[in-house]
Amino acid sequence: MRVRIAALIAAVAIAGCSNLRHDEVILLPGKDKKVGSVVVSNSGGEVVLDKAYASAKTKGSTIVAGSSSPEEVGKAFGDTLAAQPPRPASYQIYFETGSDRLTGESSRSIEGILADIAKRPSPEVVVIGHTDTVGRAGIRNDELSRQRAEVVRTMLVKRGIPAASISVEGRGSRELLVPTADNVDEPRNRRVEITVR
Amino acid sequence: MGKAVLFSILAASFLAHVPAAAAADNIAQFKKVTGAVFVEREGKRSPAQTGSHVRQHDVIVTGNDGAAGLTFADNSLLSVGPNSELALDRFVFNSTTHEGKFDSFLKKGTLAVVSGKIVKQTPGAMTVRTPSAILGARGTEFVVRAD
User: Fold this and answer.
1) B143 to A80: CB separation less than 8 angstroms, yes or no
2) What confidence score (pLDDT) does residue B13 get?
3) What distance in Å separates the CA atoms of residue A126 and residue A128, rounded to the nearest whole number?
4) B81 touches chain A (CB under 8 A)
5) Fewer Cβ within 10 Å of end Cβ, chain B: N or C?
6) Domain count, chain B
């Protein structure tokens, strides 16, 4: 009961501050409709927000859980949300076995990626090459994955993307998209992942 | 080739390497900037533009009409609204393992967060402090106001 009274006093104290002199956090639903969670804590306790528009107001050592709404968020955070950068996007480009030659379909999908890059402010591109598990997993695949990434970088630079905005890495067969045993010819693992942000 | 020429070439190539070394420390880039937006670094304040980079320990400051959005190396997205002050206290990210730590302090104003790879790999590895609370992000999107 004492805890409840303390919370009530805190709520009244915060509600009484009509000039909004408190801090507040509101959990939003993700773009994919998934809701994450945020743990809010101070010397007065801890609140876990795990539902869309769940909120916590804090001031001094008080902390009060509540809820907000899309309308309130739009009003209080409209400018802030309007300034959010575009979401990063990720693409896979596939390669012929044992080579740095793109598959025909992947060559064509480059156009869509270029269009995405073109519409972003100050775009950055991260190019990460991978291989399947064919061949000795070690140096050869590291080299091949890097080579694939370099081929993609060269294509992008030729199409006008500044080299300085592109970073390139090779991961060999360490990060398989489709887990396989050694020496498995898996087209979906022979890839370059292009992240555009 | 005279010694003086050789020296100046060496000096030039050395100087050319300085910004490259500093560039490695960039943790994020401004993608949107409207109104008055500044970056405070080592006591100096300079105006921010779309495309400019920020580093660990930088403080983002916005004026009455200011707002800005930043994309971080782990794909976290942060944006601040008018009359805000956000200190980027710590940003460490391993692009291979996705392990890292991201701590910031919203001294005043508003902040919108979309968490990135650091939180996906290690829920709770991103925190936002306000004057009266500390927020541990275990995933995705939230907004914060500090008065």
Assistant:
1) yes
2) 44
3) 7
4) yes
5) N
6) 1
Reported as a single tens digit per residue, the pLDDT across B99-113 is 999 999 999 999 999
Chain A touched by B138 (CB under 8 Å) = yes
> Dihedral angle at the C-alpha atoms of B125, B129, B132, B135, nearest 10 degrees?
-30
Name all domains of chain A by residue range, CATH numbers in brackets: 2-82 (no CATH), 89-196 (3.30.1330.60)
Cβ-Cβ contacts under 8 Å for A139 (sequence gap 6 or more): none
Q: How far is A144 from chain B (nearest CA, A)?
A: 18
d(CA A63, CA A9): 11
- Per-position DSSP letters for A26-56, written without gaps between them: EE---TTS----EEEEETTEEEEE-STTEEE
Say if B29 is an interface residue toward chain A (CB within 8 Å).
yes
pLDDT tens track for A89-99: 999 999 998 88
> Each residue's pLDDT tens digit in chain A (197 positions)?
455 555 555 555 555 444 457 999 999 998 888 899 999 999 999 999 999 999 999 999 999 999 999 999 999 999 999 999 999 999 999 999 888 999 988 888 899 999 999 999 999 999 999 999 997 656 789 999 999 999 999 999 999 999 999 999 999 998 999 999 999 999 999 999 999 99
* Residues A41, A12 contacting (CB under 8 angstroms): no
Residues in chain A: 197
> Token pair of A154, please?
């060269």
Structural domain boundaries, residue B73: 3-146
At position A186, the amino acid (one-letter code) is: E
B99 touches B115 (CB < 8 A): no
Residue of A nearest to B70 (CA): A85
